[in-house]
Amino acid sequence: MTFELTWYGHSTWGVTVDDTELLIDPFFDTPFTDTDPAGLDPDHVLITHGHADHIGDADRFEGTHFVATPEITGYLADNYGIEQSTGMNLGGTVELGDAFVTMVRADHSNGIDTGYGASGGMPAGFVVSDTKPTQEHDADSISFYHAGDTSLHSEMKDVIGPFLEPDAAAVPVGDHFTMGPAQAAVAVDWLDVDTAFPMHYDTFPPIEIDTDEFVREVKATGSDADVVVLDGDQSYTLAE
């Protein structure tokens, strides 16, 4: 089983589950990445919400299948030329090749392209796993939680952690528009993950932080999670 994560900066992640390649929130205008999105060929692109720093490079993947809320998929079809898409909503799970993708709650705003008009529906996070989530614990399953842009919310403790059982989580830590290091650390503790990755920081001035603060805050919660601060374009392999 191959389960590899690649962070391209901000909230943009590549997730490879066996032979299936996913890309989450394509936005490559960051100081972290040297990747030319034209060189990527994902099977599916997942969109957590419609802000410009999450869909800014969606048009670079015109021929790819997209997954997002129906409001976002409709907008992408009308404005970005995206012809292949699946609209879904919170709580749903779709099978994408070797991966199962569950859309979960995020607490944030969702004006499309950071505009003040059209709404993208509910913002979301995604749990990507190699098996379909059930109430039966599967010790061999591997799963990754991309929290999207969010504040701390109790479903992390009550639903996402105990039911979807992510092994690793990428949480926003930049503060101002999302959780900062302290609340993100509480999220990591509630989720009871083995590995935590900070994201959505240092892209522009309001969200510049010291990631060492996040490391200290996670330790202060008593969590045993290993905090991994990736460089842009760096990959990490999840193991069973």
Automatic annotation (TrEMBL):
Keyword Hydrolase: yes
Molecular function via GO: hydrolase activity
Magnesium in keyword set: no
Pfam families linked: Lactamase_B_3
SUPFAM superfamilies found in the cross-reference section: Metallo-hydrolase/oxidoreductase
This protein's UniProt keywords: Hydrolase
InterPro entries found in the cross-reference section: RibonucZ/Hydroxyglut_hydro, UPF0173, UPF0173_UPF0282_UlaG_hydrolase
Source organism, top-level taxon: Archaea
Family per record: Belongs to the UPF0173 family.
Protein name according to UniProt: UPF0173 metal-dependent hydrolase J2753_000115
Lineage: Archaea, Methanobacteriati, Methanobacteriota, Stenosarchaea group, Halobacteria
